[in-house]
Design a protein that fits this description.
The chain is mostly helical. Helix 2 packs across helix 5, helix 6 crosses helix 7 and helix 10 runs antiparallel to helix 11. The chain is built from twelve helices and no strands. The protein has two domains: about 90 residues, no CATH class; about 110 residues, no CATH class.
């Protein structure tokens, strides 16, 4: 079994080196593309060539579409094919490392389970990475949904006090004092940068809605674009109606998150209960046997 593991390790290393030499600087432009969570970007370049040559996207269209859709919701439509390619290369890089690690473990220690473990991890981890990506996108949407009513309340107050919509949004973003870690304010800051750079207010607002990819943000965008030119009491009234609806949705989402948190506590509580039963019951059973 050791010689098989050694041969597999050599094939994996040589295959990676050959692909690395063949791709050269073909993907050098993707190295600076901003994308969080990529830890093996340099090691994954040979697999990018492999993905394009084998046309993995055409063989797994539904999987690749879901990955690209999630990345579009996180980073926008621009460069989404490139980010999808990078993410897929990251998955293959982890699979390659686990197979190589399993082969080396079997080669050095003689434990046959090393190869099996490496193959299992190589199959499981890509699925786990895709699942984690979808969870991050869902959490991002929930964060936006929870913060949007607060933002809308602030805009309603500022517009009612005589500010324009643009100025009200700018003041809300400036109140963060440079902290744009929240996804909603990050996209708002990008929107402000766009219209200050020459985009029209309507175009920048529509781009903001597309980047957020949340239904409630689309309602907010539509309401603002339909009414902001009219101004006055009608505009404030429409924003207040939308605010009430968004607060109701926020309450429903908060209840759902609370129920999910409660359900997650069930397993630890059952586990603790079983441990207590064992700790209390074991001495009693031992005394009965004596």
């Amino acid at each position: 079994m050791r010689w098989v593991s050694g041969a597999a390790a050599i094939v994996l290393v040589l295959g990676w080196l050959l692909l690395r030499m063949k791709c050269g600087r073909r993907y050098a432009g993707l190295r600076s593309l901003p994308m969080e969570g990529l830890r093996l970007r340099a090691a994954g370049e040979p697999f990018l060539l492999l993905i394009e040559k084998w046309r993995i996207g055409s063989h797994l269209p539904s999987v690749m579409f879901r990955i690209q859709r999630s990345l579009q919701r996180s980073y926008g439509v621009r460069y989404s094919p490139e980010r999808t390619l990078l993410f897929t290369g990251e998955m293959l890089s982890y699979s390659w490392l686990f197979m190589l690690g399993g082969s080396l473990l079997t080669l050095l220690s003689g434990v046959e389970a090393g190869v099996i473990l490496g193959v299992l991890l190589a199959l499981i981890l890509p699925a786990a990475l895709v699942s984690d990506l979808h969870k991050k996108v869902k959490l991002r949407e929930q964060f936006i949904m929870l913060e949007l009513p607060e933002l809308l309340n602030s805009i309603v107050l500022l517009v009612g006090a005589g500010e324009t919509v643009q100025r009200a949004i700018v003041r809300c973003v400036e109140s963060r004092k440079g902290d744009y870690s929240h996804p909603l304010y990050k996209e708002l800051f990008t929107m402000i940068t766009e219209w200050e750079g020459g985009y029209s207010f309507q175009q920048a607002f529509e781009n903001f809605s597309k980047r957020c990819a949340v239904q409630e943000v689309s309602l907010f965008t539509t309401t603002v674009l339909l009414n902001y030119r009219r101004g006055g009491a009608d505009f404030v009234l429409s924003l207040r109606d939308l605010s009430r609806m968004l607060w109701e949705k926020r309450k429903a989402l908060s209840r759902t998150r609370g129920e999910q948190a409660s359900s997650k506590l069930v397993f630890p509580m059952v586990l603790i209960f079983l441990i207590v039963i064992v700790l209390v019951g074991t001495p009693a059973i031992m005394m009965l046997k004596m």
